[in-house]
Amino acid sequence: MMRRPNAPPPMNGPRFNEFIQSPKVRVIDQDGENLGVLFTREAIEQAAAVGLDLVEVSPNADPPVAKFLDVGKFKYEAQKKANLARKTQKTQEIKEIKMRPNIDDHDYDTKMKKVHDFIGEGDKVKITLRFRGRELSHGQLGMNLLKRVQEDVTEVAKVEAYPRMEGRQMLMVLAPK
Predict the structure, then answer these.
(1) Do 134 and 95 touch, CB atoms closer than 8 A?
(2) What are the two backbone dihedrals, phi and then psi, of residue 70, each rounded to the nearest 5 degrees?
(3) Which of 88, 108, 114, 147 gets the most CB atoms within 10 Å of its CB?
């Protein structure tokens, strides 16, 4: 793609000063006062008179809205805000709990405590029931156990993937409500 000889270089961030393409802009000064609609050249000169840049803050408005700002500081603040948003973002993980079809009550309670902890943190939980040897011929035991798990977490979680067999394992996925 060929660029025109007088075209401004492609830039990231808001347009400012001579990069503003609109002939007229609605201007807001450094104190937040609306100065009304001015010619872009005139607005740039007024901004330079107070030692600031004219920065386009709302380019899609009609006419575009521009403010008297320090463009470097404006970009820095926007970058800090984006970094903070990325840092506070929670990624949802899938935690796995493994059980056997003939699990004892105390072991079951311990596993369920962990399931509640994981769901409380906002993570999904994959419950894996592993069958060994002849246990595989008693699939209803596994189904009953997973139904029991489902009933124990109904108030805090919903079943995202209902119990299904995959080889010698039965899987179920729970997600926070």
Answers:
(1) no
(2) -85, 115
(3) 108
